């Protein structure tokens, strides 16, 4: 289905700056120096809100026209709007941090979670460097997978009357959030099952 492109990037830039700030706050909430001070209910509310917010941002991005000169460019270059880039880079960073922490996965020297024995300031600098500091790499990843997927997913909703389309996107986002909570609830068990399966494959009896 062809995308409906009827928005100028400059017209929606203030809204995407707001989206970027919200996702930046979500990223900061995952720093372990802050996370313990944030109520569990607040962490849950942020995750619930993140999926509808992402879908709404995706629907708006899919309607932006970046100009004829961008049509032959790679997507990461064609998106000629800093707030749009920041929004999806930070969204991907947030979801990545949630997954890393829930499944207790380490990324080695680029893991944003610093060793627990480090001083708090040093750990915060490390976290900022490998979360916000990796924003360009995360944007490239978002442009490669996340944004194209959102364009396909949200295109049908963008052709509906605005209130209906927005309401359905929010409902879909809440459904995705519920699925994410279910997956995260079984995170440790899934990780153990994957490790056991891998051990059997690489070390058969």
List strands and helices in order, with pairings.
Elements: E1 7-8, H1 9-29, H2 32-35, H3 40-62, E2 64-65, H4 75-78, H5 82-103, H6 120-129, H7 135-158, H8 162-185, H9 187-202
Parallel strand pairs: 1-2
Helix pairs in contact: 1-3, 1-5, 3-5, 3-7, 3-8, 5-7, 7-8
Describe what you observe in this structure:
With 205 residues, the chain is mainly alpha-helical. It contains nine helices and two strands, in the order E-H-H-H-E-H-H-H-H-H-H. Strands 1-2 form a two-stranded parallel ribbon. Helix 1 runs parallel beside helix 5, helix 3 (40-62) packs antiparallel against helix 5 (82-103) and helix 3 (40-62) crosses helix 7. The chain is globular, with a radius of gyration of 19 Å.
Question: What structural category do the secondary elements indicate?
Answer: mainly alpha
- First-residue to last-residue Cα separation: 51 Å
| Strands in their spatial order, largest beta sheet | 1-2
Poorly predicted regions are none
Coarse morphology:
globular
Overall radius of gyration:
19 Å
Strand element count = 2
Helical content band: over 70%
Strand content: under 5%
Describe the biggest sheet? 2 strands, parallel
Query: How many helical elements?
Result: 9
Secondary-structure element pattern, one letter each: EHHHEHHHHHH
Report mean pLDDT, rounded to a whole number: 85
